[in-house]
Amino acid sequence: MGLKMLIPAAPQVAGLVDELARWQHDGLPLQLHPGDVGWYAMRGLNSTARSLRVWADREAIYALGLLDGPDLIRMAVHPDFLDIQPLAEQIYADLASPANRIFPSASASIEARGATALGKALQGNGWKPGEAWTPLRRSLDEPVRLPELSFRRVDPAQAGQWMETHLNAFRGQDFSAADLERAVQRWHTMANTPIYEQGQCLTAYDSEMNPLAIAAVWSAGSGRPGLLEPIAVHRASRGKGYGTAISLAAAAELRSMGASSALVCTPSENTTAISTYLAAGFTADSEAHDWHRENTEES
Fold first, then answer.
1. Where are the domains of the chain?
2. 3-state class percentages of the chain: helix first, strand second, coil last, to nearest 5
3. Sorting pLDDT into bands at 50, 70 and 90, what band is 105?
4. What is the pLDDT averaged over residues 171-198?
5. What is the residue-averaged pLDDT of the chain?
């Protein structure tokens, strides 16, 4: 095939995300989505480019991977090539090659939902099912009915409030003013990338305009599924249905962007999140597992 694994330059990232968007279709398993790359772009386009891996020849791009940390790569394979075993074997060889330094740590995981041939290659080389994830989706054929809350799109002036709610949801009160300042800078970095042209952040407020929950949504283009990433509820507001409310608002925003459906994925052990999405009209797809190995020298 003349296939090579490439590391793109920063100016190539937007074009690769556009290509990834064209791979998103209803009815296919949720693979790496443009929104995943958009959220990662809080680190900047140079860092994002260094974390991308592209399998291509002179004719086409066949697969993309995002190194999301030292021990995880999140994969997408072109829908026409999900079952092509020679391609899968080449991807596996590149991932496993010590020269490529994909996984410097002793254990590693690969997210490759729907990539049937790659799964067979991994299993044949000793990788085992790892963390379980539950993908969920909501059709956007019909308008989304919203609860009686105030939902606002976030502009740069509200980035601090949005990120403060995000940090509170995931870290509680365990963050400093300096942590928040860095987080806000990362938000601006993300929002200034071309990827965010297909993204939007939202905040849900109570009647006194106190932030209750936040979301970011990412379009893959008209007629394609969009992604919710992330969704978060302020810790003081949990257990009151605001997670469901912001999920509905996120779905409605994606519909206004032309998305055919709304997608989200959460660890299967997070039953609270799954219940929240189900209450917002999402339906659960079949559970999917990452592929995992404990010792790189044995794989």
1. 4-132, 139-284
2. 40, 25, 30
3. confident
4. 96
5. 96
Give the helix/strand (H/E) hosting 65.
strand 61-67
Q: Are 94 and 5 in contact (CB under 8 A)?
A: yes
pLDDT tens, residue by residue, 211-263: 999 999 999 999 999 999 999 999 999 999 999 999 999 999 999 999 999 99
CATH of domain 139-284: 3.40.630.30
- Residues 6 or more apart whose Cβ sits within 8 Å of residue 85: 117, 120, 121
Q: Could you tell me the two tokens for 236?
A: 């003081």
Is the bond leading into 211 cis (omega within 30 degrees of zero)?
no
pTM above threshold 0.70: yes
CA 275 to CA 289: how far, in whole Å?
20
Q: What is the DSSP letter of 45?
A: H
**Does residue 298 carry a pLDDT above 60?**
no
> What is the architecture of the domain spanning 4-132?
3-Layer(aba) Sandwich (3.40)
Same fold? 4-132, 139-284: yes
Question: CB neighbours of 201 closer than 8 A, spacing ≥ 6?
Answer: 153, 154, 162, 187, 214, 215, 216
